[in-house]
Amino acid sequence: MNIxxxxxxxxxxxxxxxxxxxxxKELHPDCRIIALIRPYTREIVENNPLIDxxxxxxxxxxxxxxxxxxxxxxxxxxxxxxxAYLFDGKLRGAFLSKLAGIPVVxxxxxxxxxxxxxxxxxxxxxxxxxxxxxxxxxxxxxxxRDQTDLLTMSEPTTQDQTxxxxxxxxxxxxxDEKLICLCTRGTFPLKDWPQQYFIELIEQLNRKYQAKxxxxxxxxxxxxxxxxxxxxxxxxxxxxxRTSLRELWLLLSKSSLFITVDTGAMHIGSTTxxxxxxxxxxxxxxIYGPVQSNEKTIVLYRNYSCSPCSRKPNECxxxxxxxxxxxxxxxxxxxxLLSSCERKDHVKKQ
Length: 350
Hints:
By secondary structure, the protein is of the alpha/beta class. Helix content is 39%, strand content 16%.
């Protein structure tokens, strides 16, 4: 049986959907899962053991045209899909599912957010929007579940490993050095810890550890990262846009520490087991926090009354929710995580 999952969401959200994909496989052991995705999330589902086939839908391109939509509908009809789960929650996935002749469409109905999509949903799920997003997606598949499983990242290839090794070699990284990765920018400015804070933190980390400090990000973050590096007295390396998602997973898995704002890279990092500090401001970790939380994962969040918010940057001049997370606090927690890992490594070697 072919089952469609509408996962036309962002990188972090597709990863947060993976426990739901796993539950579909458990409920329908012989099924094939076909995923509708955005092109830039391809590497989350490609080579992922939970996904059998994927269809890329570029919602911002000419593919929104009638001809391309008809191509997708014909493809889905040829697959004889029996059921669809809508994780995106928007009208487009519900409408496509019905035009493709899928007999059973399952999706969320929360307040008035999905009122138009609801016209095409056969099995409606009324789910609390305040749940952690991974559990929210899981309840679309199985409303009785109250605890989510871990996230499932796609499996890196040999080529991915070669690329990461070459990148690390290009900065003369040695395996006995500390490798510290930073993600300095979110998908919008209100998620960003102040640039000057990151500059001060890098200087302190370099002073104490003589580490190799790498700043990761999307291709359009390169100039922002260059702006940080230009103000440093010490050294850091700009890897923004230089890795694929699977290569990023490998890079983070080799790291001693990952310090990040709330973004898709945080969820990728959470699947590696690498010690991580995640900073939240306008978004809440109660909904978007790391799923694989343990003693090596620290979430910093001030929980001010105005958070979570959906303000525009010019509507929040203070940005106090992230400014109040100090460099000193992040540095102290970094030292604790690095020291803890050193102690464990020492015990293993003995």
